[in-house]
Amino acid sequence: MKLWKKVFVVTVSVVLLSCLVVLNFGSQAAAADQKVYKFRMQVLFGPSQLVQYQPFVDYVDKASGGRIKIDLYAGGQLVPTDQMLSACAEGTIDLAGGAGGYWSNLIPLANVEAGMPFALRTLTDVNTFFYQKGFLELCRKAYAEHGIYYLGPQMVDFAFIQAKKPVKTLDDLKKLKFRAVPNTSKLLGKSGISAVYIPAEEVYMAISTGTLDGVIYGGAMSNSTMSYQEVAPYYMVPPINIANQNLIMGMKQWNSLPKDLQAVLDLATQYENLYIQTLNWDLEFLSRVKMIKENNLKIVQMDDSLINTLTDSAKEFWAEVGKKDAYSKQGIDMLMNYIKEVGYIK
Questions:
Q1: Which residue intervals of 145-258 are DSSP H helices?
Q2: When you count CB atoms within 10 A of the terminal residue's CB, does the N or C end of the chain come out lower?
Q3: Number of domains in the chain
Q4: What is the DSSP letter of 69?
């Protein structure tokens, strides 16, 4: 065979072989792209409230073209609620709908993430602080050190003062004794206000017998499920605290996903955040209207002087939280800058 023919044959063979390699690689890549990822997700709530997370599961399924399937579990079904963070990091579960307060001893920044009293005051505040002021990225850095990808916040509720008597001024507040979680009790104590912690299910009887005068628990929907309006018909606004939860994922599971599916989960988290915010905000006012009609609930606007006094006390609490670690300091600094910017403090 002439030399040019040999060269031609060899060249064609090499080209054909290269094409086969490329086609084979392409088919493998295409197959990899169609891999179905099956994840288990546990949330804080009981079985009856799992429906609140169904929009997240459905969005992920549809936006991924069925490439991500999530099985949803209620609190405690797979692991204890306070162990969901470590369970995600270890791969026992893959995703969790949790709350920073459950692991703030491990991640001190979670105290800021969960909500500082008299700091962020509206749904817009929460979204702006996380998505425009860089707090989301700070949370991701802190959580990453514990093998967790922080998907994003889930703003679920506010905490309002509800009492047997109306509260407008600091003097009004000092005359009453409240049930509150420890951090809130500590804050109120700085202004000379009496507050203790008892389980939520014991509050109704404590108020009805005169042991307590009021409660700081949640919003109208949460409070109405405990029937607090029957013994404490005054509902003070604005709220003193937000109740922020989160969606998290094990870092190994997150890194196993291609970029397009990571983007799906990020967007699904924002979608779920919007859904839960609007759902609970709607329920807040529907519940108020119902209690006003059925229980003669009265909405009371607290004086600005009272809010300013409690905010000044809160500053001391914020400063204490900022001393926990470098992330906490950065988070509190970011928070202070934001609430100054919007005019809550000077």
A1: 170-174, 182-189, 203-208, 220-225, 251-255
A2: C
A3: 1
A4: E
Give the tens place of pLDDT for each residue, 181-196.
877 888 888 889 999 9
Res 345 pLDDT > 70: yes
Q: What sign does the CA torsion over 302, 129, 136, 65 have?
A: positive
DSSP annotation of 38: E
Are 97 and 53 spatial neighbours (Cβ–Cβ below 8 Å)? Answer: yes
Summarised one tens digit per residue, pLDDT across range 219-252 is: 998 899 899 999 999 999 999 888 889 999 999 9
CA 335, chain centre distance (Å): 16
DSSP bridge pairs for 108: none
Closest CA to 332 of 63, 345, 76: 345
* Domain membership flag for residue 186: yes
255 C-beta neighbours (distance < 10 Å), count = 10
Is residue 10, in this structure, part of any structural domain at all?
Answer: no
Domain with 119, as residue range(s), is 36-341
